[in-house]
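Bug #2210: token dump truncated for Arsenate reductase ArsC?
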Amino acid sequence: MSASAVPSVPSVLFVCVHNAGRSQMAAAFLTRLGGDRVEVRSAGSAPADTVNPAVVEALAEVGIDISAEAPKVLTTEAVRASDVVITMGCGDACPYFPGKRYLDWQLDDPAGQGVDAVRPIRDRIEQRVRGLLADLGIEAAA
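Reproduced locally. Full output below:
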């Protein structure tokens, strides 16, 4: 990197099939905890029409409002523009680009689950996001 280059913030893309649950929760936690020190995207290989209402409710319980979010389709441009790509059960539908850092988070799918089943998934995602921030050398916001 040349001396005149401005260091950019790391960019993270969360991908699951429907972009209605796990990837939305992960993006919401990373946005809250990483602030402007990280760029956050989420997408789905086959996006749903709406975000899972139980996911919206579970995040509202911890003070995060994603009621205005909508599932987004996964594009190769989003992958190309990201430093870290975290997949959550989308398998072969996730495009692969050499030089990107890929992580696969095995998490239960909250689709069709009530808020009681979503809470432990939410809490696991928050722990993983905190670990990711530490790996990126970014201190989590309080």
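Output looks complete on our side. The chain is about 35% helix and 15% strand. Marking as cannot-reproduce; reopen if the truncation happens again.
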